[in-house]
# Entry
Amino acid sequence: MATPAIPDHVSRQIAATPKAQLVDMLYQMLLGRRYEEKCAEMYALQKIGGFCHLYIGQEAVAIGALSTLRPDDLIITAYREHVHALVKGCDAGRVMAELFGRRDGVSRGKGGSMHLFDREKGMLGGHGIVGGHIPLATGTAFAAKYQKKDVVTLCFFGEAAVNIGAFHESLNMAALWKLPVVYIVENNRFGMGTAIERSSAIYDVAQRACAYDMASETVDGMDVLAVRDVIGRAVGLARRESLPTLIEARCYRFMGHSMSDPVHGHYRTKEEVEGQKQQDPIKRYFEHLKAAGLADQALLEELDRKARAVTDQAVQFAEASPEPSADELYQDVYAEPYGPYTRSEQ
Amino acid sequence: MAVITYRDALNQALREELRRDPNVFLMGEEVGVYQGAYKVSKGLLQEFGPERIVDTPITEEGFAGVGVGAAMAGLRPIIEMMTWNFSLVAIDQLVNGAAKMLYMSGGQFKIPMVFRGPGGAAHQLAAQHSQSLEAWYASVPGLKVVAPSTPYDAKGLLKSAIRDDDPVIFMEGETLYGSKGEVPDEEYTIPIGVTDVKRPGTDVTVVAWSKMVTVALKAADTLAADGISVEVIDPRTLRPLDDAPILESVRKTNRCVIVEEGWPYAGVGAQIAFQVQQAAFGDLDAPIARVTGLDVPMPYAKNLEHMVMPSPARVVAAVREVLYLD
# Structure
């Protein structure tokens, strides 16, 4: 049987999705790319400090997944989450202000790159301990069921997190209690510098769901419509039947693990990275839209200009935002006013 | 006033708060069908049903994190640790999750929840089941740590902990569950962070919490026979610590002994001693003394276990030491 020029899932999604949304997804991918490129620049200029993990190459996962949600759905992520936050609706300027450690940041400058939170937008945080946030997503799903709300939680983490206990404990409870949560493994093949083949007894991550009798699917994470297709089904299962799913999205990061790490070196070759870049998810999506007659080069350039402009404005906003004042240091340690604990601090 | 056990006082607090607020639920190992490993949750499944009294697998990190996530989503979870020893496999959720969420989210996500269960040694449970972990949790900004010594305090403080908007580490005394005391028939709460004088005295201040209050009171009885008047002070809450009554007492007695079941190194007593010497150095007539669990893992042998645990005799000796009587 001949392979169709346009895969089934692409035709299906293009037919079923409003054109404006399809175009917006292309814009979101471009915004994610330009935003992260700007973050790399700002990191080099030391405007951004600490650990900073960029999403370049993996955009199709967050954009495809979040395209299936309602605004009141919730997401919880690991620490490579700038783009998830933007796509969930967080203000680009306030996210950049957070990365700059400024008062107008989404977490008021207290969280930084790894801890972007926005309650209004259903962004329940970037979290910095690998796998530690998976039980939290299980908990928000537990709460949705308890409150009899049809809200769905998406939980994003890397493939390296599936070897930590919290992952297994969470999947067991979610399956046992039938919780409305979708666990999305962004399998970019490397936990920092350790390839999955060197860290995991099973390379097929989705198989992990078998142990918990949970639905699972593997998807090409470099194909945004494939991600949308698969996650859409999982979100539907969660919303309508209150059942969890484990999704493995196979993707690739074009950058190093964090800004402090090399793109290639001991753990992967330059040739491998360059080869993967041929599968650039933005390019692939553009080609799909072009083939369907929904986008052309002029539109791509227009959207790219908008993405660059929003990114530049975000930087300007962050630059203009003041540093947090010293009197904010002890704010929000507790819900009630709180001062230094020991006298030596007073 | 009724005389009831510490266990029943806790049970009443849970029941009253579950009735008061539908967002409150209890989750943990054996809390439902089994009626609680220590029977603190006896009868709650029957009254509130399995949606609110949730039996879990043995998966402490998992359900501790489920509690934190549920709190982020607006519920008020009570997470039972069958004993605090088991919290060590869940500590990432307590320290990196519950304690820091409000701060690192810039004030957006309160974590109104309680982690509760028994702590401390019981009888010959050996090294892994006989620990007092107050100092571990009390060192973490963002957590509150409560360790009541009487049925009255246990009920009033647990009710406050459940209503509190911050994560509260509520450490019950494993060997206190059967102890009895007066508890009012009418509803009451005790605010978190208020120190209580358990026995007034004039010669020496003895600071103790949880079951060490019992040890201190026994020592005070013995010393009273020798004409020594001991003031026993129970902070009840270890974080935030209400040190004003302790300082007031030390300024009166000029002597201070701190009794702690946990290990001495970097213990809560070390922090209290620091605060006392800093604020009341000039009032002290003797160095502060500490009576603590000895600096070893808990041995199984009964005689060795008795050597490790603070005893009334060791408190008596410490009091006589700060009075320069021996």
User: Anything to note?
Assistant: The mean pLDDT of chain A is 95. Chain A touches chain B through 51 residues (CB under 8 Å). Residues 19-44 of chain A form the longest helix (26 residues).
